[in-house]
Amino acid sequence: MTSIAVVPGSFDPVTLGHLDVIRRAQGLFDQLHVVVVHNPDKKALLPIAQRVALIEKALGQAGITGVTVTSWSVGLLVDYCVEVGAKVLVKGVRSPADVSYETPMAIVNRKLADIETVFLMPDPAHGHVSSSLVRQVARLGGDISPYVPQVVKDFIDTNGLPD
């Protein structure tokens, strides 16, 4: 039986922490889908298609192959999981606050569609990094290169951040 997992997120933008979770999750499952999802509680900075493209390029730069990258904005994330045959969601958690936020969703996803959630702790080098922190540092003119793949830094340096 093939094990299929989904790594969902807003990835606005993708960070080195995200890539770390994706790389490690790929080693645990036969197939991995990275899914950019619309989060109605967050105001997105980059359009979904741009986030998908940046993830694909970042994975290529990092030598991570064989990962499906897509988006899902209609219906529940578990609907996507059922559609592709995934039985597991993989979530990177950096802090107790992340666990508190993710746990109710994990329980609901299990009840809705028998989808399990696996929490992966970050590499300590990336445990403090979030997309919102990257956006703030970039907006204030700071160096984001320690936190994001080169393709993201280049994109932001070239295009700036939308207001």
From TrEMBL:
MF terms in GO: ATP binding; pantetheine-phosphate adenylyltransferase activity
GO cellular component: cytoplasm
Coarse class of the protein's main subcellular location: cytoplasm
Cytidyltransferase-like domain boundaries: 7-136
Site feature: Transition state stabilizer: 18
Binding site for substrate: 10, 42, 77, 91
Any single Pfam family the record assigns to this protein: CTP_transf_like
Homology family: Belongs to the bacterial CoaD family.
Protein name (record): Phosphopantetheine adenylyltransferase
Native species: Pontimonas salivibrio
Annotated gene: coaD
